Amino acid sequence: MGQRSKATVLANLDRIREEIAGACARVGREPAEVRVVAAGKTVEPTALGWVLEAGVRDLGENYVRELQVKRAALPGATWHFIGTLQSHTAHHLAELADVVQTVVPGRALRRLARRAVASGRTVPVLIEVDFTGARTGVVPADLAGACDEVASTEGVDLVGLMTLPPITPAAEEARPYFVQLRELLRSVASRFPHMRELSMGMSLDYPVAVEEGATMVRIGTALFGERPPT
User: Fold this and answer.
1) What are the angstrom distances between the C-alpha of 113 and each of 39, 87, 153?
2) Would the pLDDT of 61 be above 50?
3) How far apart are the C-alpha atoms of 147 and 158, rounded to whole Å?
4) In this predicted structure, what is the pLDDT of residue 172?
């Protein structure tokens, strides 16, 4: 991968914003209803700083250590944890993350919540929904129970749902999963009316996700370019 340039990243951001505006126009939404979460895995703080300066306030990280380093380097952002929540590091997120998007009931959630309470914080969280049956996340049939458990946990505030749909060869094929997530949110909304966030859509399919109601799209490659192989 070649060196990132500020001009290229900002041009990518302009295109992403235009595509979000276009998707919103197609379905009668306002672009201000959709937040771009710049997914910064392996992206240097300098490049994240470019999009922060350009008005992207929401930055997402997959790993606790990267989040720790970048948060210290880039004050003023809203930091989203978008990686797998793990019990041995979850407690650190109570102080590092402003939003945790990948919550499921269990030990990791309890460790996050306990540390948040001890720190005098309440952390906004989203429940991760898994439509594949093979990834981390709550399967749709278990969502109502998961909402009950998370919503009753002191130290966290349940604000919505997140998903990473099965990999599809074309963006349009992801639409049914976005529709399902929107309908799942609707199904629990009467009991949890403050749950309004839908984090769905990434670099390959975010316009489709916006058409189906996404309030947050997590965009890395389309913004910063291809990541180096790991």
Assistant:
1) 24, 11, 7
2) yes
3) 8
4) 96
pLDDT band at 230 (very low <50, low <70, confident <90, very high): low
Phi-psi region of 206 (alpha: psi -120 to 50; beta: other; left: phi over 0): alpha
Distances (CA, A) of 159 to 71, 99, 123, 166, 227: 22, 10, 10, 23, 30
Q: List the Cα angle 64/34/40 in 5-degree steps.
A: 25
Length of the chain: 230
- According to DSSP, the β-strands at 99-103 and 78-81 are parallel
Structure tokens, 69: 């380093």
Token duo for residue 178: 């976005």
Q: 149 lies in a domain?
A: yes
Q: Report if residue 229 sits inside a domain.
A: no
Please report, as a single letter, which amino acid is at residue 133.
G
Domain count, the chain: 1
The alpha-carbon radius of gyration of the chain (Å, integer) is: 17
pLDDT at 229: 62
Q: Print the domain residue range for 15.
A: 6-224
Q: What is the CATH number of the domain that holds 38?
A: 3.20.20.10
- Candidates 86, 47, 44; CA nearest to 63 is 86
Say if 148 falls within a structural domain: yes
Strands (DSSP E) contained in the chain are 35-39, 58-61, 78-81, 99-103, 123-129, 156-163, 197-199, 216-219
